[in-house]
């Protein structure tokens, strides 16, 4: 297509964004396709819970792409995305022979929706790179595409992995929408949306080709509201916790119900015994990176993933603020930071609170060594020691009484941030009790500040949807109902809490305060596009022992 032709598109559409809904069964490759189009690369995906949106320019046309999750429980919400849709892209896994009839039913259901009766349908028979894939002709027949007599539709084979077939499909879409616009508006009939489109010419940047950089992106679990209005794309508002949505909850439960083989008792015992060793290895592997550029971990800590900016992965800004807010009012406060790792929260805290002194511990010797060898380490303000929270001898209190730190006032705040999830669940009560006992000895008691992974977090969903989840050594460590306990690839533990579990633990220990669930959506451009994050947070008051 030449420059003159591109200008024609511009003159037809001006700067109007065309809304395209990308639909299809789960696992069809919709998200992979969308990011291949917009970023030009293959990203690692997890099932979409809700939708992703991307602005995209192709041959001088501006598209707003809506990639909507295809899990069973989400399909009923598809129609709520269809308002003012200019075209539908329906994506199919060409190897999913078993579900081709289901795909046909879903496509026809959507095709008959009056909101899209005039919208052209592009069917992408995806995953053609896999040997034995059904051909577009076979799929066309199975989908009964010829039944769409009055409709404009076309099917193309493609592969989101290689990018083959994408240009052909997009060219067809651009032509079709262009022809529609000429027919509808150039002859003065007005558009099907009451003439809201204006004809104006723009000769700027007659650029062509695939891919173009996206102008913006959002990822949201918002499956209702604002969905039809393209002038107001949903804002991810990453730091806001989102309200509960039944479709999203149902989808998460469905995903977590699959691939539920559990590890053997032997494996669980082995990893429990090796816990300190495994964490030591973790810090060994990430040590260099930490000191070079602070991108020391690929772990998904709360603040890093909740941010759309390019913050370093280890930035614990939000957690640091949480703790700062508690200790700030205490004058020369003393904090006990349990599970300090290599000091990612410690050093920003010390900087922000000049009078603060911190006892901090981790059960990885290597992590503690790194805290001590940090350029800003100051022994007058930091007592860093190795401690295993799950063993009672020697006691935690004895480390706080070592010289010269026995001269400090007793800590009145304990932070326990992304720590309990690394400990086997049968020990959670005991660990929390030992911390509560410490604070209860103070005349005014104290606070435990808690944050950790919550049930339904993206990282939990991934354990059940990874390609190899069905045959690899299971990550799931417990089949007890309500126990969401896993092992990561490096054999460290990962537990996902429900607020009521924590409330029950706190209740047993007489702690005051409730656990809250934080539902977040965010985009991490580097690693994942599909971030449904869930954290649980509590500020417990430990009353003094009477
Ligand atoms: N071989 C091959 N695999 C693909 C292709 N496109 C996607 N995949 C893989 O298919 C799986 C599912 O892809 P997604 O893009 O997450 O599927 P989806 O349609 O968005 O799924 P939901 O979000 O659950 O609706 C991923 O493992 C992709 O890597 C392709 O063209 N070829
Ligand atoms: Mg998806």
UniProtKB/TrEMBL annotation:
The keyword Nucleotide-binding applies. GTP binds at residues 24-31, 70, 126-129. Keywords: GTP-binding, Magnesium, Metal-binding, Methyltransferase, Nucleotide-binding, Transferase. Residues 190-199 have a biased composition (Basic and acidic residues). One of its GO terms (biological process) is methylation. Residues 184-248 are annotated as: Disordered. Mg(2+) binds at residues 31, 48. GO terms for molecular function: GTP binding; GTPase activity; metal ion binding; RNA methyltransferase activity; S-adenosylmethionine-dependent methyltransferase activity. Belongs to the methyltransferase superfamily. METL family. PANTHER family: METHYLTRANSFERASE-RELATED (PTHR22809), TRNA N(3)-METHYLCYTIDINE METHYLTRANSFERASE METTL6 (PTHR22809:SF5). This is Arf/Sar family protein.
């Amino acid at each position: 297509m030449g420059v003159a032709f591109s200008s024609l598109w511009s003159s037809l559409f001006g700067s109007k964004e065309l809304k395209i809904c990308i639909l299809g069964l789960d696992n069809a490759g919709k998200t992979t396709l969308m990011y291949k189009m917009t970023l030009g690369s293959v990203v690692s995906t997890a099932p979409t819970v809700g939708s992703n949106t991307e602005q995209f320019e192709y041959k001088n046309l501006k598209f707003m792409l809506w990639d909507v999750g295809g899990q069973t429980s989400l399909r009923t919400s598809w129609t709520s995305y269809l308002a003012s849709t200019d075209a539908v892209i329906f994506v199919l896994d060409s190897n999913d022979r078993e579900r081709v009839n289901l795909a046909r039913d879903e496509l026809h259901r959507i095709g008959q929706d009056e909101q899209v009766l005039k919208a052209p349908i592009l069917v992408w028979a995806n995953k053609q790179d896999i040997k034995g894939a059904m051909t577009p002709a076979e799929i066309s027949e199975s989908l009964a595409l010829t039944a769409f007599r009055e409709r404009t539709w076309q099917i193309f084979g493609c592969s989101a992995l290689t990018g083959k077939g994408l240009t052909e499909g997009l060219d067809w879409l651009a032509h079709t929408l262009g022809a529609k616009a000429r027919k509808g508006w150039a002859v003065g009939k007005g558009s099907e949306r009451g003439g809201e489109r204006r004809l104006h010419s723009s000769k700027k940047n007659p650029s062509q080709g695939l891919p173009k950089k996206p102008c913006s992106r959002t990822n949201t679990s918002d499956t209702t509201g604002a969905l039809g209005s393209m002038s107001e794309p949903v804002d991810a508002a990453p730091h806001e916790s989102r309200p509960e949505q039944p479709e999203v909850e149902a989808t998460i439960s469905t995903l977590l119900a699959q691939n539920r083989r559990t590890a053997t008792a032997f494996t669980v015992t082995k990893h429990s015994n090796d816990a300190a060793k495994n964490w030591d290895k973790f810090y060994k592997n990430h040590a260099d990176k930490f000191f070079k550029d602070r991108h020391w971990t690929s772990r998904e800590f709360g603040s890093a993933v909740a941010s759309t900016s390019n913050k370093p992965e280890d930035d614990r800004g939000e957690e640091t603020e949480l703790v700062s807010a508690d200790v700030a009012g205490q004058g020369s406060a003393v904090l006990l930071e349990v599970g300090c790792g290599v000091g990612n929260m410690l050093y920003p805290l010390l900087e922000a609170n000049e009078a603060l002194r911190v006892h901090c511990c981790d059960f990885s010797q290597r992590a503690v060594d790194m805290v001590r060898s940090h350029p800003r380490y100051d022994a007058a303000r930091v007592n860093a020691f190795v401690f295993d929270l799950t063993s009672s001898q020697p006691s935690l209190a004895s480390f706080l009484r070592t010289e010269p730190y026995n001269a400090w006032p007793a800590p009145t705040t304990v932070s326990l941030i992304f720590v309990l999830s690394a400990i086997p669940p049968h020990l959670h009560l005991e660990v929390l009790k030992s911390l509560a006992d410490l604070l209860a000895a103070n005349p005014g008691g104290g606070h435990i500040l808690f944050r950790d992974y919550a049930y339904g977090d993206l990282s939990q969903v991934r354990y059940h949807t990874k390609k190899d989840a069905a045959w690899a050594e299971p990550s799931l460590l417990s089949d007890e109902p309500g126990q969401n306990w896993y092992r990561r690839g490096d054999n460290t533990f990962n537990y996902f809490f429900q607020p009521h579990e924590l409330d029950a633990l706190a209740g047993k220990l007489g702690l005051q305060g409730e656990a809250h669930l934080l539902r977040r959506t965010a985009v991490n451009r580097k690693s994942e596009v599909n971030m449904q994050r869930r954290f649980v947070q509590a500020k417990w008051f430990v009353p003094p022992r009477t």
